[in-house]
Structures are given as structure tokens and as C-alpha cells.
Design goal:
Blueprint (H helix, E strand, L loop, with lengths): L30 H5 L5 H106 L37
Length: 183
């Protein structure tokens, strides 16, 4: 009998143990399975069906858990996108508010500068008008003083400590009184 002539081994599952591709798979077969005399076939089938059902339930539970995880990840991604959008909107509003505040500050500074320059201009005008008034008063006083030349009154003699030609007692020849007295 040849190795391939076995009637109880399906040729699709049979592996030649002397072949180079033999991986050492063992075949566990009981004689009762060959002759069909195993008494616990119903219990074995029930156990096998229970094991298959448990595997199906486990696969379904695993698939449900993976689906829930995917849904949670998608919900988290949506929430993060919403928060990022809110953060970007808040940042844009803050930037607009800062820009408006800077513009308002510049307008305020320009307005206060304009008010200050107007006030300084008015003050300068007042000072100039006061100075012009004072000059006109001084001119009138000079004119009034010059109008008394040749009139009786006090005369001034300037006294200096430097040596000069002419005059009396160190006065210059121009500042001598009309009476010729250095009083």
C-alpha cells in the first residue's frame, strides 16, 4: 500500500511526512470517528456549536466595540474641530477689537494733539498780543519821555568807572547835564 492510497484521509488535507514541504502537522483521529461509533457525537456537536456561537458573539461584540470607538473618535474629532473653529473666531474677534482699540487710541492722540496745538496757538497769540500791547505802551512812554526835552524836570547823568575824555567826574561828554553841574 502506498502512502497516498489511504481511504480514510482526505487527499486535500493529507501532507506527505517524507516530502520537503512537510511542516509537522499531526492528524488526531479516533477509531470511533472512523467507524462512527462515538457515542458523544451530539454532545461534541453541541459543544462545537456553542464554541462557534461564542466566537460569533465575541466577533459581534468586538465589531460593536470597534464601531463605538470609531463613533467616539469621530465625535471627538468633530468636537475638536468645533472648538478650533470657536478659538479661531475668538482670535479673529480679539484681533479686530485690538485693531479698533489702536485706531481709537490714535484718533484720541491725534485729537488731543490737535487740542493741545490749538491751545498753544491761542496762548502764543495771547502772548504776542500782550507783548504787542506792552511794546505799544513802552513806545508811548518813550514818546512821552522824549516830549519833555527842554522842559524843566530831572535829568539823568550816567556815571561810569572807566576813564574817558571830557565831562566832569568820569562822565562821558554826551551825558553832561544842561546846567553843567554833575549832581
Amino acid at each position: 500500500m502506498f502512502r497516498h492510497d489511504s481511504k480514510f484521509v482526505d487527499p486535500n488535507f493529507y501532507v506527505d511526512p517524507l516530502a520537503k514541504e512537510f511542516t509537522g502537522v499531526e492528524c488526531h483521529i479516533r477509531w470511533c470517528q472512523i467507524f462512527g461509533t462515538c457515542g458523544n457525537q451530539d454532545a461534541a456537536r453541541a459543544a462545537q456549536q456553542a464554541a462557534e456561537q461564542a466566537q460569533r458573539e465575541e466577533a459581534a461584540a468586538r465589531a460593536e466595540a470597534e464601531r463605538q470607538i470609531r463613533e467616539q473618535q469621530e465625535a471627538l474629532a468633530r468636537e475638536q474641530a468645533r472648538q478650533e473653529a470657536e478659538r479661531a473666531a475668538a482670535q479673529a474677534e480679539l484681533q479686530v477689537a485690538e485693531t479698533q482699540a489702536q485706531i481709537a487710541a490714535k484718533k484720541s492722540a491725534a485729537t488731543s494733539g490737535l487740542v493741545k496745538s490749538r491751545a498753544q496757538l491761542e496762548q502764543t497769540k495771547l502772548q504776542q498780543s500782550a507783548a504787542a500791547t506792552a511794546m505799544s505802551i513802552q513806545q508811548k512812554q518813550r514818546q512821552a519821555a522824549g516830549a519833555t526835552v527842554g522842559q524843566p524836570g530831572r535829568s539823568k547823568t550816567q556815571v561810569t568807572s572807566r576813564l574817558g575824555v571830557g565831562g566832569y567826574g568820569g562822565t562821558s561828554p554826551v551825558k553832561v547835564s544842561s546846567t553843567g553841574l554833575n549832581i
